[in-house]
Amino acid sequence: MQIGIVGLPFSGKSTLFQTITKTHLDPSALTKVETHHAIVKIPDARLDKCVEIFAPKNTVHATIEFVDVVGLKKGESGSTQFTTNFLSNVKSNDALVQVVRLFTNETVPHPDGSINALRDIESFETEFILSDLSLVETRIERIKKQLMKMQDELAKRELPVLEKCKQILDGEKPLREMDFSKDEIHLLKTYQLLSIKPMLIALNFDESQRGETEKYVKLVSEKKEGKNTKIVSFFGKIEMEVSELPDDEAKVFMEEYGIKESALNTLIREAYTLLGLHSFFTVGEDECRAWTIKNGMTAQEAAGVIHSDFFAKFIRAEVVHYDHFITAGGSFAKTRESGLWRLEGKEYIVKDGDIISIRHS
Q: Domain limits at 239?
C-alpha cells in the first residue's frame, strides 16, 4: 500500500513525511526535485503482545509506503502551479494525505499570501477534477470512434462507466465520494484517476494554536468530509521534535502537549479505514506476523495472501480471535478447551484481529 503526501509549498508536507518515517533529510535534499520514499512498519500492540508470548525467531510487521510527492512549483504570478510531473507522481498512490497549513510564520509566507484552509483544499480538488475530466473525455471520444469501426465488448462496458464519471466531474465533484460497483472500479483502475483516490486532509497547526484545533477541524469537516475524505489535525513542528526522541521521552513530551496519538498512528488508522483494510495474524515460535487484507476477504483469499499455493490447496482455516486468545491467557490449548478455537471453511470472512493457521494439501 502506497500513500502519497501532497501539499502546497511551505505547508509542512516534507516535515510530516520525515516525522512519520523518521527519515530526517538534510535541508539541501528537500530543495531537489525528487520524490522521497520510505517503508514504515505499522505499529500494532496486538502483534507486540504475541511476540511477548511466543518469543519468535522472526517478527514481521505489516508495512506501508509513504511518498513525499514533489512537482509543485511557483508560477510567474507567485501562485502554485500543478505541473504535469506532479500529477504524474500522484497517480501511482493508493491514497493521498493532503497537508494543509493553518499556522502562520512571517519568515515563511504562504505562497498564496494568506492562510485559508478551504481555498488550499479546493485548489487540489479542482486540479484533480480537471485532470480526470480531460482524460475521461479523451477516452470517451476514442471509444466512440472505435465502436463505429468494430464491436469491442470491453469498450462497450467501459463507455457507460466513463460517461458516468464525466457527468460527476462536470458537476465539479470528486469521484471518490461517488458509489461505484466492484466491476466499475475494476474498469477504472487502469486510468489511475486522481479524484477517485481516498483523501486524508491533515491540518497542520503550531504550538500556539493548541486550543483552536477542534474549531478548525469542525469547520473543514462540515465542508469537506465525506465517505472517502477524512479530516485530521497534527502539530508538525512539535511532532518532528517528538520523532527524534527515545520512546519513553517521546511519551512524556506528547502528554505535556496534550497529543493523544502520534501522527504516524493517526495516519495509518485513518488510511486503513479509508482503504477498507484490516490485519490478521499468523503466530508461533518461528514467526509472528501481521498481514494486511481488504475488508470482506474470505479465509481462502487470506490464505492466498500468505502464499499463492495456499489459495489453490486450501482445506480449512484454524481461527481464534486475538481478544479471545488473550482472554485464554495466550494459550491455544485453553482456547480449544473453551470452544473459542474453531475450524472455518473457505467462505469464512476474516475479521480484524483473527489469528489464523491454514490447513492445505
A: 2-43+62-113+197-275
Q: Is there a domain that residue 57 lies in?
A: no
Model pLDDT for residues 196-217, shown as the tens digit of each residue: 999 999 999 998 888 888 999 9
Is residue 105 domain-shared with residue 214, that is, in the same domain? yes
Contact by Cβ (8 Å): 17, 36: yes
Cross-strand pairs, 63? 41
Query: What is the grid cell recorded at 360?
Result: 492445505
> In 3-state terms, what secondary structure has residue 133?
helix
Half-sphere exposure of 184 (CA within 13 A, CB side): 14
Residues 108 and 12 in one domain: yes
Residue 48 forms part of a structural domain: no
Q: What is the pLDDT of residues 136-169, one digit of tens each?
A: 999 999 999 888 887 778 888 999 999 999 999 9
Extended beta strands in 187-335, E state: 199-205, 229-235, 277-282, 287-294, 314-321
* Cross-strand bridge partners of residue 60: 289
Backbone angles phi, psi at 120, to 5 degrees: -65, -40
Torsion over CA: 280, 40, 128, 9 (sign): positive
Q: Please tell me the predicted confidence (pLDDT) of residue 51.
A: 97
pLDDT at 228 over 90: yes
